[in-house]
Amino acid sequence: MTELAAVKAALKTQAVETPSWAYGNSGTRFKVFTQAGVPRTPQEKLADAAQVHAFTGVAPTVALHIPWDKVDDYGALAKYAEDHGVKLGAINSNTFQDDDYKLGSICHPDAAVRRKALDHLMECVDIMDATGSRDLKLWFADGTNYPGQDDLRGRQDRLAEGLAEVYERLGDGQRMLLEYKFFEPAFYSTDVPDWGTAYAHCLKLGDKAQVVVDTGHHAPGTNIEFIVTTLLREGKLGGFDFNSRFYADDDLMVGAADPFQLFRIMYEVIRGGGFTSDIAFMLDQCHNIEAKIPAIIRSVMNVQEATAKALLVDRDALGAAQRDGDVLEANAVLMDAYNTDVRPLLAEVRQELGLDADPMGAYRRSGWQERIVAERVGGTQAGWGA
Amino acid sequence: MTELAAVKAALKTQAVETPSWAYGNSGTRFKVFTQAGVPRTPQEKLADAAQVHAFTGVAPTVALHIPWDKVDDYGALAKYAEDHGVKLGAINSNTFQDDDYKLGSICHPDAAVRRKALDHLMECVDIMDATGSRDLKLWFADGTNYPGQDDLRGRQDRLAEGLAEVYERLGDGQRMLLEYKFFEPAFYSTDVPDWGTAYAHCLKLGDKAQVVVDTGHHAPGTNIEFIVTTLLREGKLGGFDFNSRFYADDDLMVGAADPFQLFRIMYEVIRGGGFTSDIAFMLDQCHNIEAKIPAIIRSVMNVQEATAKALLVDRDALGAAQRDGDVLEANAVLMDAYNTDVRPLLAEVRQELGLDADPMGAYRRSGWQERIVAERVGGTQAGWGA
Amino acid sequence: MTELAAVKAALKTQAVETPSWAYGNSGTRFKVFTQAGVPRTPQEKLADAAQVHAFTGVAPTVALHIPWDKVDDYGALAKYAEDHGVKLGAINSNTFQDDDYKLGSICHPDAAVRRKALDHLMECVDIMDATGSRDLKLWFADGTNYPGQDDLRGRQDRLAEGLAEVYERLGDGQRMLLEYKFFEPAFYSTDVPDWGTAYAHCLKLGDKAQVVVDTGHHAPGTNIEFIVTTLLREGKLGGFDFNSRFYADDDLMVGAADPFQLFRIMYEVIRGGGFTSDIAFMLDQCHNIEAKIPAIIRSVMNVQEATAKALLVDRDALGAAQRDGDVLEANAVLMDAYNTDVRPLLAEVRQELGLDADPMGAYRRSGWQERIVAERVGGTQAGWGA
Amino acid sequence: MTELAAVKAALKTQAVETPSWAYGNSGTRFKVFTQAGVPRTPQEKLADAAQVHAFTGVAPTVALHIPWDKVDDYGALAKYAEDHGVKLGAINSNTFQDDDYKLGSICHPDAAVRRKALDHLMECVDIMDATGSRDLKLWFADGTNYPGQDDLRGRQDRLAEGLAEVYERLGDGQRMLLEYKFFEPAFYSTDVPDWGTAYAHCLKLGDKAQVVVDTGHHAPGTNIEFIVTTLLREGKLGGFDFNSRFYADDDLMVGAADPFQLFRIMYEVIRGGGFTSDIAFMLDQCHNIEAKIPAIIRSVMNVQEATAKALLVDRDALGAAQRDGDVLEANAVLMDAYNTDVRPLLAEVRQELGLDADPMGAYRRSGWQERIVAERVGGTQAGWGA
């Protein structure tokens, strides 16, 4: 197989999981803008996600968020997904949208609130049993707003205790992915603020506990690809929540703010042996002002383009320049791949997969958008609150 | 008058304006937590604000937000305020909470939306005429989320045009205070992102246009007191929106995150001749998880403490050390004031004003909180959406 | 002329000024690493700069730094440059490398130090008269390290006074370019910390005073292209000091850290009518660990590539999408240009100019590096201190 | 013992280690300013450090930096120190000031450079054997400036290998303290950029490997006290390098930039059981523009004041408020301690220790400064390069 053929083959194996909530409404604290055609039910979200997969070919699974995607019969939901050409993916818990969680969930000073949160997490694992999901994605909004508000160390103890209980509940083939976040919604301390904290907890829990990197959850200037490298080296990278940012956790389309950074991240994934199904490549974005399905298609394409460029890096030449200490040449080898226009290559890959070379145009021409705008009238649009 | 007497006299003239919306519910994009006893009407907000003034003695005015505080009869509202011991302050406009404003307000690419936003601003000046308010505070959520989304320069042209129309509408004794903000809710570009932009626009508009400094609206590491110094030197500082932050625009209680910074800001205000009624000292905060009225009392007290320390700086000694280039001594003179415990001094000031020396305790003992929790049942609690 | 021909024509007019000091040694506070073949004299720096121009065709001028490039006869130096195919460009002043400047230069509390600094600036204008340079580039290291150390407002007064004196000295056709910098070497306050401060001073001085944007001198997250847009709109953009950064003022090769940002900046330059000789496009970089001449060639090429992409933006399509409020399409139009591989186009441009299509390779093959390594033995290598 | 007596007793046990290099010259990349009276030899640095201890009573040890403090006879140096009333403390290695280290030291791509760096580290342990020092403080300037320059993962492998070799060399009662740093002098990647990386390496090495927190080595906005809490909880906090910063690694006097942060850090130290001799409390500062010995005395006093306030926190009241979820009361308990003026208390502590209540004044009156200015004439002043 030629090198280019190998790159194409790798690109055909790519899988990006899209999140059910990205199909619904989202916004900032100032305003959630509504859009015509937005899904009202988990089923409608899956139907939209199926469109993304149909046009890109590399978005075969859909992450659920509980309770936003609660249904009576998860087996039926899984069947619904498969009938539409996709599968259910990770289960995302929610321990932040109840008045009880004002001061935290599993780190809350009150044992009763901690119990409530843990019961919810256990329910999520029950749902995983029903859906066949592998991954439980845990993001905790826990933290404090004011110095002194709570005991930072006590909160870590409660966190460890809660995580251990959930870990014990995991079945064979199930994992917990622990997400860290620099800040927001807590503004003084966050209980899992960085990869080091997530890593330390996962290390004690065991092999089923892995760290998930949300690309928007870091301090300004953080070298995210270094974290990817380190977690892969430690065997503790479980997956990604992809999005992009200029400032805080902006949740813009992945690759929109800094496409070079996304390329560097994907290069370290490949270099570290992480381009496998053991790593969950997920989107976690908010399409506050742009059309949602096209935005998600664009995001998937952005991940593809970064991956294609990363696969094109001439690693032999790079290694030689690095060993020689030739700073400019090593940088040039990397940039040579980055500066390549990979869109024609990806068009070929799509055509070889039997897809339209232009997913954005194909979606636009498909009439799906007009159909959902016409059909999805009445009811309550899905959003972060539903 | 002794020096300490002069400090006390100055502290007795202090006036901090509290914002009507801080008495209502607020939150993050993840959740707005409700609190018992929260006002349902503009009148109830004023009643709460009156408590803050009653216990601190230095919070005599209340800023309104339109349309959240819309009433049929503003004259009656002003009378209601005065009957409760406070007055109406600045009018705050809102051009961000309507679906039409998804891509901006007075910078929107569509002239119809710009017209709608401008009509709202004109209405705000009408309200100022009715309430006798001096200041129109303008904060625009305008900006873009993605590179290319709109023409950055075209948006500046529209901004200038819109501001000019509002400026023309201002009556004698009325001002517009233009607020800048680093980011949020827009995540790629913001149309008034920094003091320089606000200053450049205000300079062209004329003397009635002044810049307002929100202490939470800067890039990480920004030296805010330098901006205060510069705007005062240019005669373009109109006022403050006080709050504090660890990360982004956290809107925590002023002085909670970095009390030393607040002291430095107040020192530059005093040094620059800004401790006068020409500068509007306003709070703009979100008490997402803490009790609202006590949080506002605490905030007012924090401003008082920073002011007292700033007034205590031995400016003769400071100037001498500065002229001598004695870095350590100059710093020591400033720190000497900062390290002083001014709480006993402020207790005296309060007692001399006929107030309880301990506003937090006095409020707690007053029974007001229990009363509003008991009485304010039913209805819709005030918040950012109402 | 076809559109592509217009793009090529524009690219052929491009002019990037390289700085004499980038050919010498530089480093961090921890260590200045030496390199073989580094120039020992201003003449040797010019000879190296001539190589950069010879291989790129778009680096026709060289900025000088006084006193590092002090010579007895500036006319002879200009002649030397022209004999080598380049011209002398901006004169850069230095008011930070003398023990007297420990607490500042033209903002120093001591009038004698201010006088010394001003005399140096006057001497720089004398040199401009001799070299025929148009631009005096002013960067002040002035600031303070500790709160209270000096009077922030007094320093602004001294700054204004000093700038006014230099402004008066400028001849016809001469300009002063005032640079701002967020921080370093001062760590508490900097006397010209942001574009707003530089703008406010330049506005008062007059038309010959313009702001220069060093791309590494901003707070984390700052939208630099917005500043470019605004300064162009105000008629106050005088030029650029190009370099790139991940953290602080890293002074890496321009385009190395965030090529997408450089593209966005160049797009705003073009959109704002700034792609003319009125704007000085200068490099200001430190090649601490990489070979210097090749690094500068690479930097010039990076500016070319960003410019080519910016010129390729389909502005009609972009404007249409912006007017329609089509967020995704407008972003796509911009990204379409960015994602284009412009290296073949630039190879053509070079060949049409009679140059090698591959400047990096051509320089490597030229033997210049081996020659200077062999010849430049002994003497004192040029660096920031000489 | 009353509570206040306990606070005083604790303050009397405090020990802050001062660094030999802070007595010498330092600066930024732009300029190192010289000062009269600066030491020329390790012995003169120790003599200055002895003054700091003589006037504060809590600075009994002095950290050495190799090779800056290289001597022929370390036993004699230790004796010299003890004769002057202080002891030798941690040994700091230097693997950044040799031309060979341009691309790194123990992470360098070339095995010969790695060997050289490791030999130096081994020599440092030899010196520890001679001086009786407990701690080897390791800070590596290793990293890269450009994407692609070297293999991020390969560098981690080399780092792990190098650290393991040094770890094996440690004797009983000896420790290695691994320091992390966000950036500088490397500007793209740093090989130990955050506490997580240092922690992961130390965990694998064993109990003698501990993390050291330099308070200036974090991304903007980082909650440092959270890291302190976590490392103490994990049993992996080895010590501090105290200093303060507004922007990057400014190395200002500890407590000068954000005294509230220093207080919060000291509170977490005490709450986490870290106020013991197992934690090395060291200064690591640069007194670029201020007089050095007084700056170090002030720094020691700033640590004392923060410690005193942290010891004064009413932990019973704090715990009760935290358990009640009373956000404002819990914050108020903490702030009550912070707002206390502890200078009178510390004056008493000093007097009870037989010291002058006013260390700054006492030093000024001692005549030491005049003496060293007069006596230390000629020779080469100590600095980062010597």
Largest sheet of chain A: 8 strands, parallel
Largest interface in this structure: A-D, 61 and 61 residues
The CATH topology of chain A corresponds to TIM Barrel
Q: Helix count of chain A?
A: 14
Average predicted local confidence, pLDDT of chain A: 97
CATH superfamily of chain A: Divalent-metal-dependent TIM barrel enzymes
Oligomeric state: homotetramer
Low-confidence stretches of chain A: none
Count of distinct structural domains of chain A: 1
CATH architecture of chain A: Alpha-Beta Barrel
C-alpha geometry of chain A: globular
Helix proportion range of chain A: 40-55%
Beta-strand residue percentage of chain A: 5-15%
GO molecular function, one term (chains A, B, C, D): L-rhamnose isomerase activity
Protein name (chains A, B, C, D): L-rhamnose isomerase
Organism (chains A, B, C, D): Streptomyces spinosisporus
Domain Xylose isomerase-like TIM barrel (chains A, B, C, D): 50-244
Descriptive overview:
The structure is a homotetramer of 386-residue chains. Chain A has 386 residues and is α/β, with parallel strands linked by helices. The first copy, chain A, has one domain (11-375): Divalent-metal-dependent TIM barrel enzymes (TIM Barrel, Alpha-Beta Barrel). Chain A has 14 helices and twelve strands. Chain A has helices at 3-13, 42-56, 74-83, 111-131, 152-169, 195-205, 224-233, 259-271, 292-312, 315-323, 327-338, 343-352, 359-366, 368-375, and strands at 18-19, 27-28, 31-32, 61-65, 87-92, 135-138, 143-144, 175-179, 189-190, 209-214, 237-242, 280-283. In chain A, the strands form three sheets. An eight-stranded parallel sheet of chain A has the order 1-4-5-6-8-10-11-12. In chain A, helix 7 links the parallel strand 10 and strand 11 (237-242). Chain A is globular. Chain A starts with a helix and ends in an 11-residue tail after the last helix. Chains in contact: A-B, A-C, A-D, B-C, B-D, C-D.
